[in-house]
Amino acid sequence: MNDDISKVVDDGRASIMKIEEDARKKEEEREKRNIENPLFSSLKLCNPPRKIGDNRQNIRESFSPPISRSRLAATSDSNDETDNNPKSPIQFVMPGDLRPELMPKHVALIMDGHGRWAKNRGLPIEDGHYAGLQNLKQLILNCRKLLGIKVLTVYAFSTENWNRSKGEVDFLMSHFEDFIQSFVKEQTMGQDLRFSVIGDKSRLPRSLQSTISSVEESAKFNRGMHFMMALSYGARYEITEASKKIASKVENGILRTKDINETVFEQHMLTSVTEFPNPDLLIRTSGELRVSNFLLWQLAYTEFYFPIKLFPDFEEADLIDALSAFQRRRTNFGGRNK
Ligand SMILES: CC(C)=CCC/C(C)=C/CC/C(C)=C/COP(=O)(O)OP(=O)(O)O
């Protein structure tokens, strides 16, 4: 009987060792492939798709690491900004390898790769969007905690995205509404988050428009990080609208043609709602190397960072990598800024 039990235990141990050995070999092969690929060697690679059963509960649990286990929480450090602001119980942090004086004030993000994330798992695209929205919540919390980031602008839906299927558009609109009505509202009330939506709001469903107005309105005196959501946004739309407004002022004698300059344009852009309209750093996930009609005016001097990871997998360690890369470029700025 005892012999039987030890045989079962030995067999179990052998299986576990085999599984671990296989996983180690796969990891080594993956790393070797990355080093050999000149594109991947300069970029951070995404994790292999996690094995997730085809059920929404598993999906929810799989991509939402608790913030208490995060690197940001581990490097926590208090700051005067926290103490002076009764509405913000946030403990600001500065992970050790980042320099506070080189932090980007405005980070812009093109959240790309939801479709591929879902496809890799044999899931419908809506699950990819759902995963992306959960990840966005975590990203806002992480940016909010990093001392120095004043504005986070995310590209959530472009003027071109209206051409997607009705089912996908309806899904996104109703989830954007839930996201703003619950998570964003909670953050504006409890943690002093500022909130604005930029884009052609008139095309959004009425109920989404009123949710946006009410949360923007209730957050207008907040002083914490400004979260800007580009919804139904296109840079060409924005520049055309700014031009129309300026032209109409000239027509009505409010402005003279000779007084039109870059500052006047900036004042008529949708980003005039923030005091830091020009992103210092743009991140586009999923390895695509385009700006896709995002903030064309404002990106004139922005640093670009293109991680391979798909947005639902883009986690705080990747954010810190992006910030470190940004800071390395800034320290070398044209070989002048030592
Ligand atoms: C978090 C969440 C649920 C976000 C919504 C998902 C979604 C629609 C993301 C699109 C983001 C975007 C506008 C990417 C760029 O344009 P593009 O990919 O449409 O342009 P392209 O054709 O140039 O790639």
TrEMBL record:
Gene3D superfamilies: Decaprenyl diphosphate synthase-like
Biological processes, Gene Ontology terms: plastid membrane organization; polyprenol biosynthetic process; response to cold
Residue ranges of the region described as Disordered: 46-91
GO cellular component, one term: chloroplast stroma
Keywords in alphabetical order: Coiled coil, Transferase
Family: Belongs to the UPP synthase family.
Protein name: Alkyl transferase
Organism of this sequence: Buddleja alternifolia
Taxonomic lineage from the root: Eukaryota, Viridiplantae, Streptophyta, Embryophyta, Tracheophyta
